[in-house]
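Figure 3 (text version): structure tokens given as input.
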């Protein structure tokens, strides 16, 4: 019967496909952020993010002070390991031109307790965390391919990194860019003299022991942190500790917004289902005589409903297939619209979860838009339906009420979406008008990193910027060291017009400048 009405069939399939395509596109985001396992890491459910916070602003992580991290590492018993990382910029020189990479200084045992092994060479050794240990580095797969041409002899080579001769000890697997977009790692060689208490700048990750809950680990770290606050009240009073599942912490800034958008898309899908249901009701009215004859010949109402639902399921399955194709395009469009490089563990690939969702929502949609019209069409006024030319068997007052109810539901859903979109637009406009205290027009920011090996003096960044920027075509420039309080935004490995993350290296600084007119 669907073949005999190609117009109706095409419109219905297109409506279902658009709804399923939009829903599947958003579900692929939820799958990438919340469901898909992070690559290469073992026992991910036992990994936790650990961070200190100020009790006056308990919702925001402040990072971790280096001495406090050492206290945790020394005294904690509920964790198999706890590691710290500080993201940094690394400059590899010695070639035709310097190459800039985003990387991290990380505890020597971090990759070991996460279960990640290099494809060449070895991981860091514990003694390489010491301040005066020989400088070594692990490189990412992309650096190995681009800088060393995939040569296995890269392991053991010594190259200049940030002005120091550094030995390459291993190559990490393809796709590994922990914690987000890093390509090079060096041991966390620090001392408390240069990084005293009260400077909260490290990101920490731990692994809960088997049989130990996150609540138990949190309670122990709370006790250690409280003891530190008693010993060092001038720097640690009012400091607490957050212990959250690592995956949850990584998506904390995106989870709520993603779920809200998913909810809005599902509302759109419900509107599409209501439209198809209305089409099926109208089509059922034109088939009243056919259904009446079937009932008169002995067909049961259940058989009629089953036949009509079978047609709806066909519409739903074909719509799912077409919706998957639209979702592929939608995901590509969404990824291309992202302004920044996404973390290494976020993949929008279509796996079994996405396919199952598309097929499942297609089946559920078939019931949503098919069941009510099938029940309505299977109960016509038999005498009127069998009359010669009678075509209004299901078009009585009851059928009209059903159609009106569907139209009301569509309008209500559309109104909810419209109000939500209006509120979001108003919030966006208010943010655009917010006074940030400076005039941002014709202003740019950029980041400069000075290797400590070449600029050991703490005043070197200020002297360098003062002498370098004096001749630039800018009307005004400010030169200030970057604060050590961390920003939770992440910087990608590619240069960007504005600096989104403050450097935690004392020889790095950020400079806003007014362009000359």
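Below: residues designed for each position.
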């Amino acid at each position: 019967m669907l073949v005999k009405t190609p117009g109706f069939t095409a419109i219905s399939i297109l409506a279902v496909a658009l709804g399923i395509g939009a829903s599947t596109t958003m579900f692929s985001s939820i799958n990438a952020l919340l469901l898909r396992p992070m690559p290469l890491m073992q026992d991910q459910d036992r990994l936790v993010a650990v961070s200190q916070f100020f009790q006056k602003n308990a919702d925001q992580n402040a990072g971790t002070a280096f001495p406090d991290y050492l206290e945790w590492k020394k005294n904690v018993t509920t964790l198999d390991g706890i590691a710290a990382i500080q993201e940094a910029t690394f400059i590899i020189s010695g070639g035709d031109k310097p190459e800039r990479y985003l990387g991290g200084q990380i505890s020597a045992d971090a990759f070991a307790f996460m279960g990640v092994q290099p494809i060449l060479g070895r991981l860091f050794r514990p003694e390489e965390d010491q301040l005066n240990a020989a400088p070594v580095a692990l490189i990412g797969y992309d650096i190995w391919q681009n800088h060393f041409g995939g040569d296995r002899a890269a392991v053991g080579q010594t190259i200049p990194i940030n002005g120091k001769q550094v030995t390459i000890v291993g190559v990490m697997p393809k796709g590994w860019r922990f914690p987000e977009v890093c390509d090079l790692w060096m041991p966390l060689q620090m001392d408390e003299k240069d990084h005293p208490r009260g400077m909260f700048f490290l990101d920490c990750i731990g692994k809960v022991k088997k049989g130990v809950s996150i609540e138990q680990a949190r309670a122990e770290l709370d006790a250690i942190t409280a003891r530190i606050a008693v010993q060092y009240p001038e720097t640690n009073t009012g400091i607490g500790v957050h212990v959250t599942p690592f995956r949850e912490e990584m998506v904390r800034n995106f989870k709520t917004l993603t779920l809200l958008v998913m909810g809005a898309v599902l509302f759109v899908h419900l509107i599409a289902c209501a439209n198809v249901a209305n089409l099926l009701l109208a089509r059922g009215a034109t088939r009243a005589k056919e259904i009446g004859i079937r009932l008169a010949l002995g067909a049961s109402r259940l058989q009629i409903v089953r036949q009509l639902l079978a047609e709806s399921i066909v519409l739903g399955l074909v719509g799912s297939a077409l919706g998957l194709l639209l979702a592929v395009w939608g995901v590509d469009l969404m990824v291309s619209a992202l302004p920044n490089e996404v973390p290494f563990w976020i993949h929008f690939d279509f796996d079994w979860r996405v396919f199952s969702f598309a097929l499942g929502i297609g089946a559920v949609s078939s019931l949503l838009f098919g069941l009510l019209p099938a029940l309505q069409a299977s109960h016509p006024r038999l005498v009127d339906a069998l009359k010669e030319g009678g075509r209004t068997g299901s078009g009585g007052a009851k059928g009209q009420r059903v159609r009106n109810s569907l139209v009301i539901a569509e309008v209500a859903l559309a109104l909810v979406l419209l109000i939500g979109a209006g509120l979001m637009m108003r919030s966006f406009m208010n943010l655009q008008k917010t006074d940030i205290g400076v005039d941002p027009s014709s202003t740019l920011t950029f980041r400069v990193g000075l290797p400590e090996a070449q600029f050991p003096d703490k005043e070197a960044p200020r002297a360098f910027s003062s002498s370098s920027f004096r001749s630039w075509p800018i009307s005004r420039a400010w030169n200030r060291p970057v604060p050590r309080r961390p920003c939770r935004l992440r910087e990608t490995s590619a240069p960007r017009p504005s600096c989104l993350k403050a450097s935690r290296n004392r020889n790095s600084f950020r400079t806003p400048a007014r362009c000359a007119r």
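Residues 389-394, 475-517 have pLDDT under 50 and may be disordered.
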